[in-house]
């Protein structure tokens, strides 16, 4: 089994794009992304954000399973819900209007748009908002961000019967129903 240090060394030495890699499957790695977005190795939190970001850069989803993929090997990891959590956001003025920018637990910023769409999906019997991130991966809105967005939607004059909508530049999305 690949160790955490060996995986880190492989990744730091690579320069080719992830999409060009076609490594063999090498088994499971004791790495888990918890529902709260925390990355755990053998049950212990990975405290180094640069290391987590490095692993996230090679995270892929294939047939509802998650893998870390290097040019030499592909290892399966466990993800409780989705790999990322949206924990912050802000409005960014643009020439086309205000853009809603979501910030992940790893510090990545995503402009809510057709490229990073919002959808409602059931998880543990609750309808929750998710954002498409990249490579088929998703992020879930934290409860605080979701409630803040609902407050923004309630201030919007463009509500449809009992539905809560938000706009980000030219992209309109449903947050839920009253």
What's the topology here?
Blueprint: H1 4-12, E1 25-33, E2 39-41, E3 44-45, H2 49-56, E4 59-62, E5 65-69, E6 74-79, E7 84-94, E8 97-104, E9 109-111, E10 118-123, E11 126-132, E12 138-141, H3 143-154, E13 163-168, E14 171-177
Parallel strand pairs: 1-6, 7-12
Antiparallel strand pairs: 1-2, 2-3, 4-5, 5-6, 7-8, 8-9, 10-11, 11-12, 13-14
Task: Summarize the structure in words.
The chain starts with a helix and ends with a strand. The strands form 3 sheets. A 6-stranded mixed sheet has the order 3-2-1-6-5-4. Strands 9-8-7-12-11-10 form a 6-stranded mixed sheet. The longest helix is centred in the last third of the chain and has 12 residues, at 143-154. It has helices at 4-12, 49-56, 143-154, and strands spanning 25-33, 39-41, 44-45, 59-62, 65-69, 74-79, 84-94, 97-104, 109-111, 118-123, 126-132, 138-141, 163-168, 171-177. It is of the alpha+beta class and 178 residues long. The protein has 2 domains: 4-79, duf1285 like fold; 84-177, duf1285 protein fold (Roll), CATH 2.30.270.
């Amino acid at each position: 089994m690949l160790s955490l240090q060996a995986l880190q060394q492989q990744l730091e030495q690579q320069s080719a794009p992830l999409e060009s890699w076609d490594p063999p499957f090498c088994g499971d790695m004791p790495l888990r992304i918890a529902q709260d977005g925390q990355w755990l190795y053998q049950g212990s939190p990975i405290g180094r954000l640069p290391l987590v970001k490095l692993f996230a850069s090679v995270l892929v989803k294939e047939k509802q399973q998650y893998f870390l993929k290097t040019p030499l090997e592909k290892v399966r990891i466990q993800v409780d819900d989705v790999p990322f959590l949206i924990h912050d956001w802000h409005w960014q003025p643009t020439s086309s209007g205000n853009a809603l920018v979501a910030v992940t637990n790893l510090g990545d910023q995503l402009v809510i748009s057709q490229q990073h769409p919002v959808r409602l999906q059931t998880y543990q019997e609750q309808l929750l908002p998710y954002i498409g991130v990249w490579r088929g991966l998703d992020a879930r809105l934290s409860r605080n961000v979701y409630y803040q967005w609902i407050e923004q939607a309630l201030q919007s004059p463009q509500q449809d019967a009992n539905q809560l909508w938000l706009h980000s530049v030219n992209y309109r999305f449903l947050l839920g129903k009253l």
